[in-house]
Amino acid sequence: MDYSKTVNLPATDFPMKANLPQREPEMLKLWNSDKIYERILASRKDAPLYILHDGPPYANGHIHLGHALNKILKDI
């Protein structure tokens, strides 16, 4: 049974395959050169501390889009 028509997901330019071994070094280089982590810390310097208690992302099977959605919804 084809369930692809039953899911209403946005159309994106994201590739179907992540190719992380090739892409992660490029992303890390950009994050380091732009000091992304330092900028995030600085932007929250005076913000109240919050703690997000969360379990393992894929304890019951392979990771999928639902795990990402769950984490995003918890974060907003």
What does it look like?
By secondary structure, the protein is mainly α. 43% of the residues lie in helices and 0% in strands. It has one domain (18-75). The protein is built from three helices and no strands. The longest helix has 14 residues, at 20-33.
Quick recap:
The chain has one domain (18-75).
Tally of structural domains: 1
How many DSSP helices?
3
Arithmetic mean pLDDT:
84
Q: In percent, how much strand structure appears in the residues?
A: under 5%
Q: What's the gyration radius in Å? A: 17 Å
Oligomer state of the chains in this structure: single chain
> Structural class of the secondary structure composition?
mainly alpha
The N- to C-terminal Cα distance equals 34 Å
Please render the helix and strand layout as text.
Elements: H1 20-33, H2 36-43, H3 65-75
Notable traits:
43% helix; 76 residues; mainly alpha; 3 helices
